[in-house]
Amino acid sequence: MTIQVLIVEDLSYDAELMALRLKDEGIDLNYQRVQGEAAYLEALTNRPDLILCDWHLPQFSGQRALSLLKERDLEIPFIIVSGGIGEEAAIDALRQGANDYVLKDRPARLGEAVRRVLDDQRLRKDHEQAQEMLRLAERAFQNTAEGISVTDVDGHIVSVNPAFESITGYSAAEALGENPRILKSGHHDSAFYRDMWSTLIKTGHWRGEIWNRRKNGDVYPEWLTISAVKDKLGQTTHYVGVFSDITQIKEAQDQINFLAHHDALTQLPNRALFHERFNHALTHAQREKGSLALLFIDLDRFKTVNDSLGHPIGDKVLLEVSKRMNDAIRASDTLARLGGDEFILLLEEETSVQHAAVVARKLMDMFSNPMMIGIHELVVTASIGITLYPNDGDDPDILIRHADRAMYEAKQQGRNTYRFFTKALTEGAFERLMMENDLRRAVCRGELKLHYQPQVDLNNQQLLGVEALVRWLHPKQGLITPNLFIELAEEIGIIGEISTWVLHTACHQIAKWDQIGFNVPRVAVNLSVQQIDREGLVTTVSDELSKAGLLPKRLELEVTESMLMRDPDLSRSVLSELRDLGVKFSVDDFGTGYSSLAYLKLLPLDRLKIDQSFVRDIGHDENDETIVRAVIALSKSLGLEAIAEGVEEESQANFLLQAGCNLAQGFLYSRPLPADEIYQNWAHKQETTT
């Protein structure tokens, strides 16, 4: 390495001799000679690596040069090279900060002196850096939110940080010298700890979830990482445990797991749990040659209650209805809420036609009793459809569909009654067949349209993106919303074709907006199950982005929890390949399906969408508010953004902002609109902002 040397010397010949002497001794250098104070000060700004200074100069002095160096607090090695400095002056100069002195008549010592002071300088800097690293490590140790404990090889705790004290309740004084077994909860057997130590000894690390006990006796879950610390010889000297209390995350997961199987409003089993129990009951009945009865229950004119009295009153009606029905059935029966005002009841014992009719009449009598909801006295009736196994079918979906058709027949017969399924009701399937035929031709006929719903930043209402939502412009029935045909498209196997059309159209629409100067940062497109199942999805997405000239990060694919968990390994593989392209991902309707928190952590996700069923009741239902907060907290813990859908009121937006959610979409900002209306409504807002 070439060093930069500043030589303070009035004789250029002497300066040149010094440089030559050092080069002869193998020291690579560049040097600059100065002889006055002004030139010396200017040279110091370049921070030379070494100063060689004569003590006596005509217009300057080594004493002054050394003093100026110290005044500026510059740590530059300073060697006096003089022919006329006395011993006392030299000693005094060393006291003032000079590193060494060499007499001009003894130049052989110059190289040795230079090497020594440079080595000292390097050692001093290395020591200072080491000290700074130690200070940083100590600050991190003291201030990190994770608990840290250090044990020796015998298992005695030798150090803990403040977070350890806060989480466990044990002070440092109480913990030091103890074994970490003081935290043992009793939740794990000896095999668990054997495996832990086996992994730690073999690899030097162990990481996992463990239950420990605080000083006050509370048991809590923590995420723990243990690492072995080894010396230069590779021998383990200490173990460092770093852990965080994941109680809140576990509680959030428990809440979400509960919601995955239960209706958030009524706490009844939801569709997913009902299907699970129904399949189990059907398998048992088939094995034992037994029978089952299914009652599909739909409240009459419930929409009128919501529209006239509001959703909060409607929800209270649903709560009262579910409570009354739950009180009226047996423990062996399963009552579930499928959504909205639809309930379904599975009878597994005494499932004859007569008993099913008795239960239906009992429920209708119960409905006939008025209910007081606030200041309102209401009578809410219901229509009930009944189907029986094995008389009406042996497939769960068919039996539910038959019960649904029987319920619809009860509605047609004037409501507030019940009907059993008959084969004559299947004649209505003809209308469905006609709709299937129309839907199969909808793509090639150009009948599908895309509407776009803006996604905004709650802080400033700036447009952050749009969600692409498909509509079917039927030649006779007019505009049909996706809830009326998407399920049918999935059943008849053309959802993949529709989804590919949506992807193509959405990407090219973003490109068209770019061309006219309307900046829409990203577009969200729903991904179907069939798309994930089929090969070539990654190629299709890549081709569509390339054709549209879009950067992959501007495309966000929305997936549902149930879609991800149906085949977790396949989902992870496909999503990872798409993520490699640069595409973003969000989980749609989060909290309404079932997903494993541990698995979600492994997926390449970017956002969780808070389902509108939770957002709708912000300000009206504390349970839903708690759920929303839990999802936001969970998203943060997973390093994801949270976006709320279905925001209709300013108070909901304010709640979301305060809870830490900055992204939203909903009628408060815009309904889903055709592309030209999105441009008309939002382009001028961008111009105003810019």
What would you say this structure looks like, in words?
With 690 residues, the protein is an alpha/beta fold. It folds into four domains: 3-139, Rossmann fold, CATH 3.40.50.2300; 148-245, PAS domain (Beta-Lactamase); 252-421, Alpha-Beta Plaits, CATH 3.30.70.270; 434-681, Alpha-Beta Barrel (TIM Barrel). Helices cover 46% and strands 23% of the residues. Strands 18-19-21-22-23-24-25-26 form an eight-stranded mixed β-barrel, surrounded by five helices. It has a five-stranded parallel β-sheet with strand order 2-1-3-4-5, sandwiched between helices. The chain is elongated. The model has no long low-confidence stretch (mean pLDDT 87).
Q: Which term fits the overall shape?
A: elongated
Radius of gyration: 38 Å
- Write the CATH architecture name of the largest domain: Alpha-Beta Barrel
Helix content: 40-55%
- Name of the CATH first level of the largest domain: Alpha Beta
Tally of distinct domains: 4
Q: Please name the CATH topology of the largest domain.
A: TIM Barrel
Structural category: alpha/beta
Tell me the distance between the termini: 53 Å
Poorly predicted runs are none
In terms of DSSP E residues, the strand content is 15-25%
